[in-house]
Amino acid sequence: MKKILIHWIGVFSLLAFSTAAFAVAKEVPVEEVPVDALVPDNIQRQTALIVNRVLERYHYRKVVLDNKLSEKILDRYLESLDPNKSFFTQQDIDTFAKYRYKLDVAIASGKLEPAFDIFRKYRMRVDQRVALALSLLEKNKFDFTRDETYRFDREDAPWAKDKKEISDQWRKRVKNDILGLSLAGKDEKKIRETLEKRYKTLRRRIHQLDADSVFQTFINAYTLSIEPHTAYMSPERSENFDISMRLSLQGIGAVLRSDDEYTTVQKVVPGGPADKSGQLHAGDRIVGVAQGKDGEMLDIVGWPLQDVVEKIRGKKDTLVRLNVLPKAAGMDAPTRIVSIVRDKIKLEDQAAKSSIIEADGMRFGVIDVPAFYRDFRGQASGNKDFRSTTRDVRKLIAKLQKQKVDGIIVDLRNNGGGSLTEATELTGLFIPFGPVVQVKDSQGHIDVERDTDPEEVYSGPLAVLVNRNSASASEIFAAAIQDYGRGLIVGEPTFGKGTVQSLVDLSQFARGKDDLGRLRLTIAQFFRVQGGSTQHKGVVPDVIFPTADGSGKHGERSLDNALPWAEIKPAEYHPEGQLHLSMLQSKHEKRVGHDPAFRFLTEQNQEINKLQDKKEVSLLESERKKEWQEREQRALERHNKLRALRGLEPLTKLDDEEEDDTDTEEDPEGINRIMQEETARILADYIRQKQPVTAQAD
To answer: Which of 134, 146, 151, 488 is the most exposed place for a label (fewest CB within 10 A)?
Structure first.
């Protein structure tokens, strides 16, 4: 396989990245597709055969397409079509049982009719459920004093057993939609207009899905049944990706994904407009988009992700308003409006930066590394001063040493990865020389990435701060520092993505000239120099923060069919020695147990974990208001306790924080600094632990 286009070691997939809010997306065709046009063609049959051949030959995980995999493909395909079990009933699922052990043959022979049969039944069920929703909306005779609940998250629930049960499920859904908009302050007429448009849009957009869309969904059910970072990109999706990579990153700077009928923020790009605004966070759901200060707020629940992206992206210096359901507020809370000015995402905004923190009578330099970047174009053109993470950090270290710091903290929180070269070279600034990471390919061959430069730029006390969103290249760096005993790893267990993907042009395997799209393929796995993988487990810190509670449900550990943790033979390397950590952990726990600032983070994390575990909401209006008001009050009290510590005026409501003109900082409460400050205290404890005790004269 010679024509590998892109090596990818970042945590966020190419498909997700190509549908980021700064990417180009084509509008879904306006014309609805006739149901009799939903049949496979010869190009799709050929593509299925080639995808099967490439996966079986080149994928890192050797999986045979057989009856066992066929069963998984059917379940994944049904989940892709109906992730919240809102359209099919158990009776429908029973009729699909005839395909359970035949999809392997369908793919291997190019006979794709079963996938299209299932989709046509799905489209029929969408029509029926939407018709019911519109009928219920028209009658609108709901009793909001009746004590009942609606299960909004049905991923783990059983399928509705029959038409009667799913009809009641939709009755509660419509009732919940009405109640949610009512609590948001909309009148009855506006509620009816909004929901009527939402339900009709849902039906229309399902009718606009063509045979290529059906094929892509089905083939990705196959790839995702093998491993979560392997996916097929249709010719149209490939074209969108190419366009987005050629253009400047211009928009709000957020990577989005589709969760059932909601658009969810997967990642806020460091240095982008959304990041700088401080108003949009990973896990937030976007339910509406408006242009400028006065543009109409479009309800985008149920929209395809590509269409949402098209509405959010736009020209530099223009305003977009988003109607957001914050992750920290829960599904039953009112939404809030977030205003962001679009801008170009510049390399300088993502570049490493330094600051000074004082703790326990010592001064520490903090180097914030948002990404592992490298200006490959500048390097190729012969520019000797091209920008890179390692070059920038080297300069920052020199600057901090002139300021006589007692130690350095490298902050990798929310750093999703980037250049493998940079991860290797950055490690080299802190060790004399030696292996940094081992890479095992699908054929079992192991390559070792090494630091060959004997210069150790910084040999003083070092800590690396990580969280659950530190991934890939970040994990390579943190793991190497830990394995060499070169510094402390502090924070939360990392994401756990220890695999490498390549983008493969499928047309190279075909005889004709048709564009068959591309396959993002997992071809290798990373292993630490001590032999263990960064995959799945991630890097477990030497000192773990209490905010790590709930991280087990995050990252690679939460993905279906993720590659397991594995181990190979250690590389030959020379660690500096073992660190004595038990005392550091106990001192940390004692300290943060009485630290109001850290208690704020812990309580906030506990609240979010509780909301994420919640799968249903009350349809009793008084109870719904009470729950939301109590949650808002708890959040307000947490923020005001923290603001009092910072000498800031208390808030009367959470939205006041964005309107507070008394402090021009993006983070007036200093939330971002809390973990850095505690890391500095831990590093101070470590330095004192290593200092020799001076003997006293009698």
So the answer is: 146
